[in-house]
Specification:
Blueprint lengths: L3 H13 L3 E2 L8 E2 L1 H17 L6 E3 L4 E3 H6 L2 H4 L6 E4 L4 H12 L9 E7 L13 E2 L5 E10 L12 E11 L1 H21 L5 E4 L6 H13 L3 E6 L8 E10 L1 H5 L2 E2 L7 E8 H12 L8 H7 L4
Parallel strand pairs: 3-8, 7-13
Antiparallel strand pairs: 1-2, 4-6, 5-6, 8-9, 9-14, 10-11, 11-12, 12-14
Bound molecules: adenosine monophosphate and zinc ion.
């Protein structure tokens, strides 16, 4: 059971210290200087550890072509999480109606129309369409860091609507992709243990929508397609997933015509750290005053001080 009082105290402590800045909308709080520094320091630590992997570094905006969402059947599997960008395409008269509707707090969304973009629901999504064609014999490895959006408003400080992921994405044959995913599962645990965080790993499933979604989740677990590393942050009995390790089989390869050198559909896997959750795990475990964190942890996060 999650203890509401415990996570409220943690949230209020972070607010009081200026680590996070409430905005009035669930799951969208701002971040103070130190919170952000911890996110960046952790990101840099991951970069140092994975340096010799020589991943291609890419940056994308937090919006993606809505066709990506369509091609991967996101609206069939996660309609409840999607965020779509709508804008105004109307006449002057329509604009007046829009402004009036907004003024009186009415349903002004009905007067907007869909644009070409949606909010990216995972940092890896914009990568796959760039790989259409044949990947080299040793496959591809890409890393991204980006904002993502998921419509899951919640009072839990660890469940955000807008948050960041540092991801690595491997594309190639199943023999290349699956051992890579397993290597990262161990490495992810090692990184978090080196920061003295009580991390454990477990098989997991995505929150697929509806009745059909239950079957999808069961099958995903049975096939061990998803693992998570968990740390107690807002509950001791229900630890929080701070990173995930996903094997997509040939899902993205099929959607975007990605092939391996021998002409097979490429398989893909990704691993992603939830950056705000990692930062919160550090503050929860070691305290809100970072000057009192264990020396080994500080040395890893701030190696130049
Ligand atoms: P996923 O793509 O669902 O496997 O998510 C990757 C990682 O993002 C998870 O392991 C979490 O650390 C983080 N994450 C997922 N959903 C949320 C959320 N609503 N708020 C904050 N972090 C999240
Ligand atoms: Zn991913």
């Amino acid at each position: 059971m999650k203890d509401d009082a415990e996570y409220k105290e943690f949230y209020e402590g972070m607010v009081e210290k200026g680590l996070i800045i409430p905005t009035g909308v669930k799951g969208t709080f701002g971040r103070g200087k130190l919170f952000e520094e911890v996110v960046q320091c952790f990101n840099d630590l991951v970069t140092r550890i994975a340096e010799n992997d020589n991943a291609d570094v890419c940056f994308f905006p937090p919006v993606i072509d809505r066709k990506i969402m369509e091609k991967v059947h996101y609206l069939e599997t996660f309609p409840h999480l999607c965020g779509s960008v709508h804008s105004f395409f109307g006449s002057e008269r329509d604009a007046r109606q829009l402004a009036e509707e907004a003024e009186k707090g009415g349903k002004w969304g009905d007067l907007l129309e869909q644009t070409d973009v949606v909010l990216s629901p995972a940092a890896c999504y914009p990568v796959y369409p760039t790989l259409t064609g044949t990947v080299p014999a040793d496959g591809r490895l890409v890393t991204v860091f980006n904002w993502v959006y998921r419509h899951e408003p919640s009072d839990e400080p660890t469940r955000l609507q807008s948050f960041r992921m540092r991801e690595f994405i491997r594309i190639g044959t199943p023999e290349q992709v699956v051992p890579w995913r397993d290597m990262w599962l161990q490495r992810g645990l090692d990184i978090l243990h080196s920061l003295k965080l009580p991390a454990t790993s477990d098989v997991a499933s995505d929150p697929f929508f509806g009745r059909g979604g239950k079957m999808r989740s069961i099958s995903q677990r049975d096939q061990k397609f998803k693992f998570e590393v968990l740390i107690p942050v807002i509950s001791t009995t229900e630890p929080t997933a701070v990173c995930s390790f996903n094997y997509h089989h040939n899902h993205f390869g099929t959607a975007f015509d990605i092939f391996t050198e021998d002409g097979q559909i490429a398989h893909t896997a990704c691993m992603g750290f939830g950056m705000e959750r990692v930062a919160m795990a550090l503050f929860k475990t070691h305290g809100l005053d970072h000057s009192k964190w264990p020396a080994e942890v500080r040395d890893l996060l701030w190696p130049n001080t």
